[in-house]
Every structure is written in structure tokens, then in C-alpha cells.
Amino acid sequence: MRVSVLAENHSRQPGLSAEAGLALLIEDGERRILFDTARSGLLLDNAARMGLDLSRLSHLALSHGHYDHSGGLAALRAQLAPHARPQLIAHPHRTPFWRAKPGLADGRCANWACPKSRRG
Fold first, then answer.
1. Residue 79 has what DSSP assignment?
2. Cα–Cα distance for residue pair 50/59, rounded to 1 Å
3. How remote is the C-alpha of 2 from its chain's centroid?
4. Distance from CA of residue 73 to its chain's centroid?
């Protein structure tokens, strides 16, 4: 298993940028899991500098809906391969932000919708 820090509050690596938030790429065999997307598209820049391809993810895990953990979703969508459909892992009670993000529930990302809560 390999965990790569794509974005975090601080960077000690020359050539990599930092921003408030978190984005991790977890690789284990065929599984390529992006855990959070940080605040912007910075995770894509850092991934490119690290030689990591985010166009073919198997999973996207979102810890919660704050902008500094989900703000890079729009940039990620543009980076995905045409038929890539990573499985979304998120708590349905913690993701109301999803419906407010323009362009994320269309086409390739439609399968990322969270199941509706039974409690409201």
C-alpha cells in the first residue's frame, strides 16, 4: 500500500504547493482511492509533479463536505478519463454540499450521488 499526500496545509517537498485542506491518493493493488480533494485543483498540479495519474480512480472517498476537503471536485471531474466512474464513499448525512456543486451531478459523475437518508 502506498499513500501519497497531494495537498495539505504545509509542504516540505520542494516543487509541491500547499493549501488549507487535505487530499490523499491511496494505492493498493488495483485500488486507487482519492481521499478528499482539498480546496482547489492544486491536488492535480501536485499529482502531476509527483508523476501520479488521477484520471483513473477506482474510488473517491469524502470525509465531509467542507470546502477544504471537497473544493477540488470540479477540477477532478475535468481530469477524469472519459469513461471513468469512481465509486463514491461518503456518509449520506454529511454530503448535502453535493447537490450544490454545479456540473458535478451530470454525465460522468452522476453515479457519485449519495443514497437518500431514511431519517430525512
1. H
2. 20
3. 17
4. 6
- pTM beyond 0.90: the answer is no
Give the integer Cα–Cα distance in Å for 81 and 91: 25
Taking only the tens place, the pLDDT of each residue in 49-67 is 999 999 999 999 988 878 8
How would you list the strands of the sheet with 2-7, edge to edge?
2-7, 23-28, 31-35, 59-61, 87-89
Nearest Cα neighbor of 54 from 38, 70, 78 is: 78
d(CA 35, CA 96): 18
- Burial class from Cβ neighbours inside 10 Å (0-12, 13-18, 19+) for residue 45 reads middle
- Residue 110 grid coordinates: 452522476
Look over the chain and give the mean of its residue pLDDT values, rounded to a whole number.
Answer: 81
